[in-house]
Amino acid sequence: MATNKKKKPRTRKRTTTRRSSSPASASGGSTLSEFLTFIAPDILSPDWLPAWPPDGYAITAALLRRTGSYVQLVNGYQDRTTKTITAEKAEEIGKQWRAQLNAALGGGTDGMRKSCPKEVVGWWRQLQRAASLPLAAAASDSAIVAAAINICIVADSASVGIGVELGDDPFLAVAEALRERNQAKSFCFKISVDKLAVLGKQHTPQRGCTIRSLSHHLALYAPVEIQARWWGPYSPAHNELDVFNLLLLPWPLKVSAADFKLARSRNGQGSPANGRDPQRYFDYSPVLDRRSPREFARRVMNAIETAQEHADRIHGVVFPELSLTPEEFVAVEEQVVKSKALLIAGIRGPGDSDTEHMPLNYCAIQPAGLTAGFDAVDLKRWLPTMRCWQHKHHRWCLDRGQILQYELGGRLPASHDCWERVYIGEREVNFVTLADWLTVCVLICEDLARQDPVSDVIRAVGPNLVFALLMDGPQLKNRWASRYASVLAEDPGCSVLSLTSAGMARRSRPPEGSVVDSKSTVIGLWRDAIYGDRQIQLEDGHDACVLSLVCKSMHEVAIDGRGDAGQAHFPVFAGSYSFKSSQTPG
Questions:
Q1: Dihedral Cα 113, 114, 116, 117, nearest 10 deg
Q2: For residue 266, what pLDDT is reported?
Q3: 99: helix, coil or strand?
Q4: Dihedral angle sign, alpha carbons of residues 350, 355, 361, 362
Q5: What are the strands of the beta sheet with 418-420, ordered from one edge?
């Protein structure tokens, strides 16, 4: 077993395992071979190489995470052994790998294998030769740990701009082709998305020590409960956004107690089981006025036009949770895209036999207005292909306190918890890259608070901006949304916008009384890692708000010492104002 010549720092005694001809019997655990062949059955073949950087990263990052051996880097591991390369050397080999790939990929993927640097080949063969070792022994072998770390950080260094930048770079073009082949779930080539997936990345955590701390450009996740998809990058013309103006429409302005109805059973049909269902369910089904979806869309356009009297351009329109019907969304979508803006909206949909007759609570992201130049003829053809749909992951539970807070005691029994009767479909999260400094994702209400299982992939990717669409009370600094937003702001560094409807904010009554105070018009909360939080409030008689953001770039460092050259981007608050749109919706 390899040993270090330098004197080790004083620490607790550690038991190590020597190499054995019968590794499984020696440790009673899995071997490196079993771990690797699970990822790719032919991975130990002499012809197999991690010639595509995201593949090399996926394998070695998964191995380092499984064994935990990457934590040695924060204990000065690179200073005590010459087997682990320096940050400067990793970047040098990474640039070489990228250049050789670009030269070879000009004619397709056939030359990929020959482009693999000799150092990467050597480290990989070292791992293959050690395949018979138990994982515990591999984790304590400095040469094997160093080989895995070296491949991991060199692959990350070779992947600058993946999923974020566009250009003539053949590497990025092949990455985009692989993303499409993998149904937007991974940038890997030989590694099946059913085993491991690699996405782009925007933030490297600067606190704590996890496998996420070891990369700037690549994010590892296991697609088990959550299916994550990466959309973009889009046209480089939109990477020049100096100011990002969001029109926040906290509609509806009024939410009635009659909009909440006690459901007979989970599927809303028949009688409760045994005549006494231990779980109570409610529906949120507001009584619609006589407006048509087209009339509603015109009201949205009025708001956009009014906002543009104060802002040079509106880049995005955001609605809270459950604010639109599917028909209203389609009508609004067409108008917002024509205005060259992003659209993010919470939608309530009817149930059917596919959803066990439970209604739908989901969101839609439509980037086409901001990212594509469609003319009127193309709209109906292309808009459906660019929509990102995402179901809510967790149901809302109205407990006694909330039933009293929202004055729903005459509609729902305060003696029982009442669960939102919605269908929980496939759990997904969509990352949409709108510019080289702006990757966004959306969470729906409880999904911000109940962060399992989505938090792992969000923290791995570190999107610049998280939209939390809520059906909640005022967005005050001392309430739950602020607490959970602060978690993502600290690690990995996301900026977070929570938005609720003015109707729900006004229904909320403070515990000490039933009088609606000025806090009831705080419809949004902004939080970023640089300047902290800021409440977003509607002035009297107003029904819309513009939030302006700018990009502040900082320097982030991985635990192996590699910096990102100031490419960590943070959307930060640059101003907000509320106004009355020319026509006010119900």
A1: 170
A2: 76
A3: helix
A4: negative
A5: 260-263, 280-284, 418-420, 397-398
DSSP strands (E only) in 98-226: 197-200, 218-221
**pLDDT tens column, 461-497:** 999 999 999 999 999 999 999 999 999 999 999 999 9
Per-residue confidence (pLDDT) for residue 85, from 0 to 100: 93
Written as one letter, the residue type at 277 is D
Give the whole-angstrom CA distance, residue 75 versus residue 65.
16
Distance, CA of 364 to CA of 584 (rounded, Å): 23
Of 117, 142, 367, 343, give the one whose Cα is nearest residue 246. Answer: 343
375, burial (CB in 10 Å: exposed 0-12, middle 13-18, buried 19+)? exposed
What was the pLDDT predicted at 477?
94
Max Cα separation, the chain? 81
Q: Give the angle 575-578-580 at the CA atoms, nearest 5°.
A: 155
The per-residue b/e assignment along 86-104, b for 16 or more CB within 10 angstroms, e otherwise, is ebeebbbbbebbbebbbeb
If DSSP codes are grouped into helix, strand and coil, which group holds residue 463?
A: coil
Positive or negative CA dihedral for 430, 435, 439, 441?
negative
Residue with tokens 């996926």: 58
Q: Which residues are bridge partners to 545 per DSSP?
A: 248, 578
Copy the structure tokens of residue 52.
């595509």
In tens, the pLDDT along 187-241 reads 999 999 999 999 999 999 999 999 999 999 999 999 889 999 999 988 644 446 7
* pLDDT above 90 for 381: no
Please determine, for residue 275, whether its predicted confidence score (pLDDT) is greater than 90.
no
Confidence at residue 484, expressed as pLDDT on a 0 to 100 scale: 96
CB under 8 Å to 490, separation ≥6 — which residues?
207, 529
In the chain, the domains with their CATH numbers are 26-224 (no CATH), 237-579 (3.60.110.10)
Q: Which two tokens stand for residue 192?
A: 């099946």
Looking up tokens 């190590």 gives 16
C-alpha–C-alpha distance, residues 496 and 493, integer Å: 9
Q: How far apart are CA 205 and CA 472, in angstroms?
A: 30
Residues with Cβ < 8 Å from 528, sequence gap 6 or more? 489, 495, 496, 570, 571, 572, 573
Q: Does residue 104 sit in helix, strand or coil?
A: helix
- ∠ CA 470-476-478, nearest 5°, is 115
Q: Tell me the three state secondary structure of residue 381.
A: helix
Identity of the amino acid at 259: D
pLDDT average, residue stretch 173-178: 95
How many whole angstroms separate alpha carbon 78 and alpha carbon 142? 11
Does residue 517 surpass a pLDDT of 90? no
State the Cα–Cα distance between residues 425 and 226, nearest whole angstrom: 11
Assign 478 to helix, strand or coil: coil
Phi then psi dihedrals of residue 274, to 5 deg: 60, 20
The answer, yes or no, to whether the previous bond of 250 is cis (omega within 30 of 0) is no
pLDDT at position 583: 58
